[in-house]
Amino acid sequence: xxxxxxxxxxxxxxxxxxxxxxxxxxxxxxxxxxxxxxxxxxxxxxxxxxxxxxxxxxxxxxxxxxxxxxxxxxxxxxxxxxxxxxxxxxxxxxxxxxxxxxxxxxxxxxxxxxxxxxxxxxxxxxxxxxxxxxx
Length: 135
Description:
Elements: E1 2-12, H1 23-28, E2 31-45, E3 50-60, E4 65-80, E5 83-98, E6 104-106, E7 109-112, E8 115-117, E9 124-130
Antiparallel strand pairs: 1-2, 2-3, 3-4, 4-5, 5-6, 5-9, 7-8
């Protein structure tokens, strides 16, 4: 058990945009960016070198864009006493729109007069290295 911090590199795209009137606003939201997440996790050692983990992560520091909480399931293989190879899958939960002050709003949310954000979807898989710290 513990707390965690993750930094995700994310790409967003607008699949639908209501005509030419909103094209500049919609294209400005097609971007790649880093998103910070904090949360808690629970991990279990299954065998000597295999572990399983579950984490719940929430975004922070987001302004003028959508964000979502993530439930992350991971499997790790210890390759050295201080390093594990990790495979993770994240399931998005509870999507919200964060305004320019960082306040979260439920969807649908009116971003601009006449333009509503009504749906955010996503999922991710990741492979990485983890450096466990034992106490």
